[in-house]
Amino acid sequence: MSILKVEDLKKYFIVPQGVVRAVDGIDFSLEEGETLALVGESGSGKTTTAHVVMGFYTATSGSVKYRDIEIGYTPIEKRPLELRKEIQIVFQDPATSLNPKKNVKDIIDTAIKIHRKGLSSVERLKFMLSLLEHIGLSEDLLFKKPHELGGGEKQLVALARALAPGPRLLILDEPTSALDISAQARVLNALKKIQEERKISYLLITHDLGVVRNLATYVAIMYLGKIYEYAHVDEFFNRPLHPYTQMLLSSIPTLTEEEEKLLPQRILSRGEIPSPMNPPSGCRFHPRCPFAMDICKKKEPPTMIIKSEHGSHTVKCWLYVNAHERNLNKA
Amino acid sequence: MSEIETLLEVKDLYVNYKSYWYIYKVLNGVSLKISKGEKIGILGESGAGKTTLLKSILGILPPQGRIVKGDILYKGRSLIHDKKYLNEVRRSSIGMIFQDPLASLNPVFTVKEHLLDVLKVVYKDHNYKESDLISIATELLKEVMLPDVERVLNSYPFQLSGGMRQRVVIAMALASAKELLLADEPTTNLDVTIQDQILRLIERLVNEKNLSLILVSHALGLLFRMVNTLYVMYGGEIIEYGDARKILKEPLHPYTKMLLISAPRLTSSKIGEGIKGNPPDYRNPPSGCRFHPRCPFAMDICKKEKPKLIRIGPDHYVACHLYSTSDLEKTGSGI
Ligand SMILES: Nc1ncnc2c1ncn2[C@@H]1O[C@H](COP(=O)(O)OP(=O)(O)OP(=O)(O)O)[C@@H](O)[C@H]1O
Ligand SMILES: Nc1ncnc2c1ncn2[C@@H]1O[C@H](COP(=O)(O)OP(=O)(O)OP(=O)(O)O)[C@@H](O)[C@H]1O
Ligand SMILES: [Mg+2]
Ligand SMILES: [Mg+2]
Predict the structure, then answer these.
(1) Of A75, A214, A329, B31, which is most buried with the most CB atoms under 10 A?
(2) pTM value?
(3) What's the CA-to-centroid distance between A305 and ligand 3, angstroms?
(4) ipTM confidence
(5) What is the CATH number of the domain that holds A71?
């Protein structure tokens, strides 16, 4: 049984200018103890997906199952405490997710108090100190308020708070983008270690493909509300199939020749950024795609399953539908 | 370098933060110089004081923060001692992209209201009508490649994705950056294809308008590509600076070396260790070299004396006692 299974999930927002199709029919599943990285275009619906799983928004349609229980339509305030404890999140904007009036100690302590009843205050403090140690936060921050912390320090506090209740599924929305390299390495190592020890599953949202390389088991590529490619992390780097994925990989600024060699030939990122209110017809990537064909403008590509060493590698692109079938589809 | 070319000079700057009980001695004698059209980068651990430095330049430290010593000169005139000049420079010469896009956007105002606020100040002397300003705002949003400009203008920050908010903040900064752009981790929330497009936009503006750029970033590849000169900060001090490519390839300071090894690489799934130990406690910073408690090569002198920045190569300076031994001085590479 998967810990998280999402099927044909849609989440639309109604705004005065029209309907924003933030998430527009996505499927994925996440197994116990594994990490699925959701990667993709800014504004493609990654955070929205995470927030539906958390219950901050309810789904427009489709299904979100946590261990076979439908949770997509249950807002957070209606979820039982046990479930809330099991699914935790680290937010994309650490600055605003921490209560500005409380100091670090109280912020973490509150999370421990709610979810670990029966601990004495000394036990809680001990637990907190070991947590800080694990993550690499200095104790002299305990009595600081969020506005007195550096950007990276805030993110580490948010991580400590999310880990405090002992979650089974941890959603990490850009967990390291605010961190410096050294803190990044420490947090990544801590996340790896915690996952090995406690078999927590991670739903990881990130723009940093270095982080994907180091933490993910599977990768899903999102573009404008849909998933266009899904693969095991090794497959993903060795054999990226979708033109957007190739563009993504080839846009990474690199430092060494070895890294440069690993990336596909440079496809210059170009084109207008399309709108989720009025998405392009056919394949939503076609206006930016260097390989776009006629059919790409007209028909949504099917999801093709490509054989690979590591389970299924799927890609939603007309390039991988053979010419014969493409012609049939045109007719 | 002649004085005329120098656009901004930070001279031996000391900044403290005060809280109810403590004084945090953060910036500890920071100096840097940037000339017209130059692009410099700042790299350093979280809490090193990078944002504090940029905020000091713009004169927007929070009330607890105070410049206790040193000076900041813009075109040779002090920004610290002349508030009127500071306001003028802030209004029409320098733009800043803030690190925390949400924190620099007020949740109860729409994007349009934010942009108009900035534009009204920047174009104070132009007598523009509101509709003119709205069309400037629209252009700015298009420039940073936001979709649905109409919707974005009328959105509240929470209705936008992280990357969209960040681009709004970039647009606001571009509005007032006529000479110098301060960019505090400008692209951390963006996917690499958009990051790439935004960087090319910044590069273009920097070249076309001959803007100078101070870029704070943790992304090494990005610094490698964007800046000429790199400053490495640790614990409120500049500990190494010089030609960016040289430093990224052959760092000298033990801190820089350890920092660079920690970077996650695409070539392997092995993660560096990170640097052991904690950043300095600014209430009571370590004596001598602030890095000594974490430095595997620390010697006796490191605890006693703060190392000076010395010149090691044509365009490479480092503050570390390992390099200030007598032989170096004999060969004339010392100051
Ligand atoms: N509460 C809301 N009301 C209206 N529109 C929203 C709301 N939340 C998100 N959106 C819209 O949904 C789309 C997807 O946003 P989302 O935050 O999920 O993107 P993302 O993939 O996380 O992007 P990023 O990488 O930039 O954080 C965007 O166009 C955004 O403006
Ligand atoms: N208002 C304040 N009161 C007390 N200490 C503060 C305040 N603002 C910042 N500090 C402290 O000053 C130090 C430097 O902070 P700063 O934000 O400049 O770091 P930074 O290098 O920008 O870090 P990051 O990479 O995390 O953004 C940190 O230790 C921080 O905790
Ligand atoms: Mg997001
Ligand atoms: Mg900062």
Answers:
(1) A214
(2) 0.82
(3) 28
(4) 0.75
(5) 3.40.50.300
